[in-house]
Amino acid sequence: MGTFHSKVREEITKNRERIKKLGPGLITGGAGDDPAGIVTYTVVGATTGFSQLWLLLLSTPMMIAIQNMVARIAIVTGKSLPEITTAFYSKKLTVLMIIILALANILTIGADLNAIAVIFHTISGYPTVYFLIPITAIIAYLITFGQYKKIKTIFIGMTAVLIVYIIAAILAKPPVLTLLKHTLIPHIEMNSVWIIAALGMLGTTISPYLMFWQAAEEKEEKKSIVQADEVSFDTIAGMVYSNLLAYAMIVTGAVMLYGTHSNIEDVTTLTQALRPAAGNYAFALFSLGIVVAGFLAIPVLAGSTAYAVADTFGWREGMDYKVSDAKGFYIVFIGALIFGDLIDLFPSITVVDALYYSQVLNGVLIPVLIGIALIIANNKSIMGEYVATGFQNTFSFLAMIITFALTIVMFWQWIG
Hints:
It contains 19 helices and no strands. The protein has 416 residues and is an all-alpha fold.
């Protein structure tokens, strides 16, 4: 433990010195909306109308602050969150953090896999279980044999289909003054439907895996480095674009579904949100968006889990390695997919519930992860002169407090 501690400290000190010589660069923007996000935002609109648009607007600077704070940690130290917590705090804290991440990620993986399988079930009529194994096998193959990076660009381009939500939101002709009111003026409803929806919305917007994936991208792809005091334009653009899509999904869900369905259990109901723009092709576009977003998001979810576990136990990691050279990493990766499949074997859980409540769980768990990131980002023995900025601290702390408060209220209502 002592040797590992000293080694990590020494490497961090050397990396901080290298940072001083680096110029500005670019980092990857925010992750796109996955199936769980698409469904959650639509359900939020369908169940709470426009009342949470202000909270989505507030989540944009919170996302930017958290993403850049975690990127800052990765840039300055050259280490992941698990490596840092093990070296400077406690292995038990690291294990707790990884359990939280794995739980949130595996449930979301299961929900996303189920969503894709349900789409194929709806098209073909065959049971979803027939599609789960082939879908999982394809994703595992793409990752383990190095094909994912080759087709990722194609998938990213295909996510442009989600722009149809923006078109649908415009064509649905929502009342502009009402939109502005709910976007700019905070409004809270102390009922379980509203509180759960708020946690789900924040849970899918400020996803736990984003906090780990950024560091993994820096280590794995080594695309570029940003100055520690700068906020990347690409990151801001990515977050704003992602939340613009989310805003449109909530608006279309509110206009087309609010007040018409007390309980949404079928994904085909959610396709009605696209009817203003897509008409009879609403299901086809919704299905394409779910499948493409799923194939993009599931490898990231499983990958962030594998990176975190590998870093915790000091295993060789990375998608550039062959399976034989990083067995532990790939075992966790494929294991996360398999556990996700097992979750889908419970017939009592509908696909909409699985997608929606997995994000509610994310909302419950993220205060812990944000708290840990804040502690690291403000520790001068780790970050030196590159501790978190006032903007990062303010909005990250705000995200932690809001999600924690919503969690307390939700559990209080359940107990009461």
